[in-house]
Structures are given as structure tokens and as C-alpha cells.
Design goal:
Radius of gyration of chain A: 27 Å
Helix content of chain B: 40-55%
Radius of gyration of chain B: 24 Å
Number of strands of chain A: 21
Structural class of chain B: alpha+beta
Largest interface: A-B, 41 and 40 residues
Shape of chain A: elongated
Largest sheet of chain B: 4 strands, antiparallel
Oligomer: heterodimer
Strand content of chain A: 35-45%
Shape of chain B: rod-shaped
Distance between the termini of chain B: 53 Å
Amino acid sequence: MIYRLVAEIACTLMLIVLIAAIYARQASITSLMISSLSVDVVSFTSRTKLYSSMFTINKTWELIEMYEDEFNHTLGLFLVPAFNITFIPTATGSKVIVRTWSKHIIPFLNITVLRIITSGLTDKVIDSTDIEYKETETSVGEADFSISYNSSDIYVIFVGLYRFYTYTIVAPENITRQWYVASNTSKTDYIEVESGITVNRTYLIIPHYKEPVEANWTQSGNRVYVDEEPGTVAYILTTDTGEYFLVNRLPIPYIARKGSVELFKYLICNIDNVNYMLAVEVRKV
Amino acid sequence: MKALELALIAILLVTLYATLCTRTLSMKLALENDYWRLKHEATSLARVLADSEVLFYLLEEVLKDGTITAQEREYMNNRIRTIVTALAPPNVEVKVIVVDSNYNTIVNASTPLINECLTAATGKAIYTHSLIGIFLIMVTLGRPL
């Protein structure tokens, strides 16, 4: 009887050792893998049709809405200009430094800086005295400009690598508003201003142009419908009370960082003809 | 009693088999996931190369006499390698091949560790220009070990 019990215990032990050995081997194979599984990234990408690189303004808004509604808790989203553009005031004017998001220097760049002096927005139409514009080519990823920096002015920095364009707008926070409302049909996009605001002029910021372009518009209640031109990335609205606001068409930069980058790709906006970089991140555990 | 023991052993073995299968499957999915991600990134980069018209500017520069010498090809490879490496995601190896409509390889540039990658994926884009022709741009991105 006792021999039988010992034999059963030995068999059980052998079985346990066998199972442990198989698990250990499997674990060692798994640890060799450098990849990880993230179902959320796959799901987000397929739901937002991120397999395409060409995006419209409306599709980009849909992507952001979907992220905020459904993936905000599990993923991070980083939607920024295609290059990392830094604008720095210097003793002699200003400097623009451009790097890629993987921190490399791009050797052939065309950089332009447009300064819109906001004191000219209050009581008259923008003219050449309210604008400074400089353009340069660089092979070291940075360039000095004689345009001086004033914290109340608006700066549009436009960068081109051959015909790969991107931009960033540097503007005071107190005049920047997220009032743009994108709808499914681009003809009915509008700007929803706060109640009591009456717009008296609208300007389009088009990075390819050397100055803001005055545009036709109609106001119906709080909604302002602007006749924009292709390439419009933002609007400047002036009001009858002398206030002025900068309204971006897209909430760029959109930074909701969560952890490690899982997907890193360029979006080409076919309305703006400018490029953005999109990174989807997975929360660190 | 013996039947119960046998049943227990059978359940244990089935569970073991099932868990091992799941682990193998998740490994395969993980590889697939990494590949899928690289494929997206590579396609986006190939699209950027086509849309930026880099090829037109470079080819226009070297095709002045109608042919490309070995020196000009090397110059073009270096320029494209520099641009693509700069634009690529961090920590990936890159290979770019550009083929014209006669299947001639115009550009073949890569970073040194591309052949040592565990997972790699290729994205493709077509570039057409009325002056210089039609090209297939293939960008391969690989995750090094």
C-alpha cells in the first residue's frame, strides 16, 4: 500500500516538474521577443481609417473626437506639425530651429517667418506696415532672422523640405480660441464665436502666402461662415469692440501623451497641403 | 477513484495544452502587430517621399545629360538615405529602393543594420511626374534587435 502511495506521489511530482519545464522553456522563448501586443492601437487605427495617409480637416477632427470618446483611457495621441519647430527670440531678432521628431537634422530646408503685428489689427485693415516676412534656406536645420519677437504678436513659421510642407503658429494664449466647428460636409464648417461678439473683419492665414488674406464672411447669430481659400490653416477675427482672435482649423498641437510610442506616421492634409506627424502611444504599465 | 484521477490528469493536460497554445498565438499576434505597425509607418514614409517630390529635384539635378553615372547614383543614394533616416521613426533601420517603369533600380540606399532586423516591413508608393516618368518607391523599415 505504502509503495503505491509513494509511486503516486512520485508520478505527480514528475508531472509537475514536466509542466514547469515546459512553461520555463516557453517563458524563455517569449522573453526573446522584442515586440508587444497592443490591440487598442490596432482597433484605433482601423476605426479611424489611419491606414490612409491623406486626411481632410474633417477626418482629422473625427479622429480626435473618436480618440477622446473611446480611446482616451488606454492610448495617447500626439498630433503635431511634421517637424519639431522651435522659435526663439535672440538679441538680434529671432531664430528658428527645425528637427525631425526622431531628433535628426534635415539637411535641405526652406524656412519662412511671417510676423503679424497685432496692434495693426485693432482699428484698420492689415497693410504692409503690420507685417514682416523673411525667407531663408538652410542646410543645418536652423536659421537666424532679423524679425524681432514681441509676445503679443502672431508668428507663422513655415518650413518646406522640397514640397513637403509644415508650419507652426506662435501666438499669445489669450487671443487663441478653439472655435472652429467641422462638419461632415466641408461647405458648412463654421466658427462659433461667443455670444455678443460681432465680427467686423476676417483674415485667412495661409502658410504659403506672404501675408494674411482678407476674406468674405457672413455672421448668423454666433456662427461665422468664412469663404476660405485652399491652404487656410487659421483665421484672425477682429471685432467691432477692437478685440481680435486667432482661430485654428485644427487643434494643433494636440498633445495627450501617455507612454511609449506605438505608431509614428505622417498625415498629409489634402486641404491645407501641409503635413502633420501623428503618434499613437500606449499607456505604460 | 482511479477514474477521478485520470479525469484530473486529462483536465490538467488539456489546460496545459490550451495555455501553451494561447501563448504561442499571442506571440504570433505580437509579431503580426509589430509588422503591421512598421508597414503603416513605411507606407506613410513612402507617401511622404512621393509627395515631397524629392525624386524630381534629385533626378533633375543628376539627369542633365540623360544618364546617371556611378558617382551621381552614389550622391543620390546618400541624399535619399539622409532624408529618409531623418524622417523615419526613432530606432528603426531603413532601406529605400526606387524602381523606374523599365524596372531599373534608380536608388538603393540603406542603413548598415537593416539586415539584422528581426521584423521588417515594406511600404510602397507610386510617384509620377510628366518630365521624369513613373517610379515605384519602396521603403523598408526594420526594428533592430
